[in-house]
Design a protein that fits this description.
single chain; alpha/beta; Rossmann fold; DNA polymerase, domain 1; 2 domains; six-stranded parallel β-sheet; three-stranded antiparallel β-sheet; 11 strands; 37% helix
């Protein structure tokens, strides 16, 4: 049973704390069809990546920021099928509030909407798409998460569900636990993988360190 010692925990949002896959899939497909783009091609790369980068890749002729706002406003208004990942609320509630943050590829409006709708606490530090110049798989989002909590990147543990997110965390020098909520297990390069937070618990919090036990 792996045991991680860390100073802080950084969580991705979609696919980690909340399962929003039905909404993401539905709204991206609506947008893609509106612009004559292959929806399946979009969905093969959309998860874990900033919306603005998805738009720029598939529709470089459009205003990426305007289209991003449109897509994410639609997602924020559509909660059908969104649910909390089992065990997420209990695990967050067990952690000192100053020792965890959320690092998401979504914009702030969408992130706060998802957390509030699902009854999850808002973190003291939230890194969103607007806060970075380069999104995942670049390490900037996770480095900004560590900076906001005033801890060294090497002392952070990350929970991620996407290949892009795992790559970003590793590039930042952080340990990663992968959740098999969005991608097939063979797509996740994290050494430790879980289905939900029902397999994760805070085993101790002494000497400035959190001891996180993971049952694979």
């Amino acid at each position: 049973m792996p045991l991680f010692s860390c100073s802080a925990i950084l969580f991705d949002l979609d696919g980690v704390l909340v399962d929003s896959t039905p909404v993401v899939d539905r709204q991206y497909r609506v947008w893609a069809k509106e612009h004559g783009i292959d929806p399946d091609a979009v969905m093969r790369v959309a998860h874990g990546v900033r919306t603005v980068e998805v738009v720029a890749r598939f529709a470089p002729h459009l205003d990426a920021l305007a289209e991003t706002r449109k897509i994410e406003e639609r997602e924020a208004a559509d909660s059908d099928g969104v649910r909390v990942i089992p065990g997420a609320l209990a695990f967050l509630s067990s952690l000192p509030s100053e020792r965890w943050a959320v690092v998401t590829s979504g914009m702030r409006l969408l992130a706060t909407n998802r957390l509030q709708r699902c009854g999850l606490p808002l973190p003291r530090w939230l890194v969103t798409a607007e806060d970075v110049q380069q999104g995942k798989p670049h390490p900037e989002p996770y480095l900004k998460g560590a900076q906001g909590l005033a801890v060294e990147p090497r002392d952070c543990l990350v929970f991620e569900d996407s290949p892009a997110g795992i790559e970003a965390a590793r590039a930042a020098g952080m340990n990663v636990v992968g959740l098999t909520t969005t991608y097939p297990v063979e797509r996740l390069s994290a050494a430790v993988k879980v289905r939900s937070f029902e397999q994760v618990r805070l085993a101790g919090a002494g000497n400035g360190k959190l001891q996180i036990e993971v049952a694979e």
